Amino acid sequence: MCGRYTITVTLEELMLRYDMYDTFMPRYSPKYNVAPGQPIMAIIHDGQRNKLGELRWGLIPEWAKEEKIGYQMLNARSETLADKPAFRKPFERKRCLIPADSFYDWKGTGKHKQPMRIMLRSRELFSMAGLYDTWTSPDGNRISTCTVITTESNEMMKDIHDRMPVILPREKEAVWLDRGVKNVEQLRPLLQPYPSELMMAYPVSNRVGNVRNDDELCIEPISLLI
After folding, report:
1. Within 13 Å and on the Cβ side, how many CA atoms surround 37?
2. Which of 99, 218, 213 is nearest to 165 (CA)?
3. For residues 50 and 18, is the Cβ–Cβ distance under 8 A?
4. H or E element at residue 23
5. pLDDT, tens only, 25-64
6. How far apart are CA 187 and CA 6, in angstroms?
7. Exposed, middle or buried by CB within 10 Å (0-12, 13-18, 19+), for 81?
8. Separation between Cα atoms, residue 191 and residue 176, nearest integer Å
9. In this structure, what DSSP letter does residue 37 have?
10. Could you give the CA distance from residue 143 to residue 41 in angstroms, rounded to a whole number?
């Protein structure tokens, strides 16, 4: 699964990477330990251009009766998107990019789990494939939320976890965001494990297990404990 990630670039770097030049995000700041339930940066296409905004991590389907279902929808398995009621319509028409420069996962079992930071060897920003939806609460409050799509792990990740987020090749991002593309068979080939040779991982402190820790110490390399 994908349960924590980082986005440590400046807003200017983020806007440049995704060709957005008039975005104003007063609350933006680099994040070293993004966690479920938090508002996160996401990119959609409005039919004319890319737009950056906040979505809450944990998808609440538009038909949901209760808000708490979002905590069960942090990730969506790529293999069953078209089969699950919560993801079927968003897969067809509400797709987003979730920018990151690394994600965390835990290696090992039981009490001896080592947090690992996983990233591109180039250390560049990348786009996790996501879905979004908007839910209206009984009192009329509209909440826009999202989920991270996962796939089977590549060879490097298999030593850490059997699932990983779908990282889209840069040249495929526009297709994923294109609202005119509704044929899921055209989209399925995008949901593949990212090439192992382009990725790397290193151990980090157990500090990332606590959502209150959100600073540069979270990404500092440490000696492998297991």
Report:
1. 6
2. 99
3. yes
4. none
5. 768 899 999 999 999 999 999 888 889 999 999 999 999 9
6. 26
7. buried
8. 10
9. T
10. 15
Q: Which three-class secondary structure state does DSSP give residue 44?
A: strand
Cα separation, 133 vs 177, whole angstroms: 14
- The per-residue pLDDT for 109 is 75
Beta pairing class for 75-77 and 142-152: parallel
Q: Which among 4, 147, 129, 122 has a CA at the least distance from the CA of 64?
A: 147
Which residue is it, tokens 């402190």? 205
Tens digits of residue pLDDT in 149-165: 999 999 999 999 999 99
CA-to-CA distance for 75 and 146, rounded, in angstroms? 9
Q: Among 141, 143, 145, 142, which residue's Cα sits nearest to residue 132?
A: 145
Contact 91, 18 (CB under 8 A): no
Q: Taking Cα atoms as reference points, which of 188, 219, 223 lies closest to residue 95?
A: 188
Count helices and strands (H / E) in the chain. 4, 13
What Rg do the C-alpha atoms of the chain give, in angstroms?
17
CA distance 60 to 76: 12
Q: What percent of the chain has pLDDT over 90?
A: 81
Q: What are the DSSP calls for 131-183, one per residue?
A: EEEEEE-TTS-EEEEEEEEEEE--TTGGGT-SEEEPEEPGGGHHHHH-TT---
